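Lab meeting, item 3. Inverse folding demo.
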């Protein structure tokens, strides 16, 4: 377990344990990459464990800005799980969603847990390879250096948090099981005992 995970647990235990949350978990992901495979399986496993999880509607047409309903779901979730995949950064929607998640972490002491699905955490942290290319395209299109820098800072901040990396597991089933078991302990207010169950 990293110090960032420990600090998340301590702050959340003191300031969010008494708050009533609409959802236990908010799932942030790139639909084109994982909606019908990994994220679908993760959502099902969380649901079967009794963890109230928000996942966006596949039929909702996305505009340039995040809908008020989705912003509200982020605000009302105890934990945000961010599934980083190959094209996560190609979506400005995902990047704006990520900044909102970090805003809620700062204001409401909500917990943020990154999942690295077929991507290297260092590539997310340092915006390399596909992440670098996607951000360069965004910078050319939006022509807003400040916004792009904020996106980069958000990626670095979340990638520095303790979470899970698929390469550390024998298969996706064990990967998902470990995520769900740890999230279940957190949801059940086991913050003070989280050191016994380090995230890998």
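The presenter then showed the designed sequence:
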């Amino acid at each position: 377990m990293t110090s960032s995970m420990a600090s998340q647990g301590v702050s959340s235990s003191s300031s969010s344990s008494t708050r009533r949350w609409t959802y236990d978990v908010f799932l942030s992901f790139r639909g084109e990459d994982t909606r019908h495979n990994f994220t679908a399986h993760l959502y099902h496993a969380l649901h079967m464990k009794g963890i109230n999880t928000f996942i966006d509607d596949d039929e909702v047409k996305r505009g340039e800005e995040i809908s008020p309903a989705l912003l509200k779901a982020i605000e009302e979730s105890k934990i945000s799980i961010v599934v980083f995949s190959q094209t996560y950064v190609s979506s400005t929607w995902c990047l704006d969603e990520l900044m909102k998640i970090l805003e809620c972490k700062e204001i409401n002491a909500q917990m943020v847990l990154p999942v690295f699905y077929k991507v290297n955490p260092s590539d997310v942290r340092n915006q390399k390879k596909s992440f670098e290319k996607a951000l360069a395209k965004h910078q050319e299109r939006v022509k807003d250096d400040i916004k792009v820098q904020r996106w980069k800072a958000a990626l670095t901040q979340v990638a520095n948090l303790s979470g899970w990396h698929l390469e550390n597991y024998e298969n996706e089933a064990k990967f998902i099981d470990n995520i769900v078991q740890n999230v279940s302990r957190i949801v059940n207010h086991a913050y003070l005992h989280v050191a016994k169950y380090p995230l890998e």
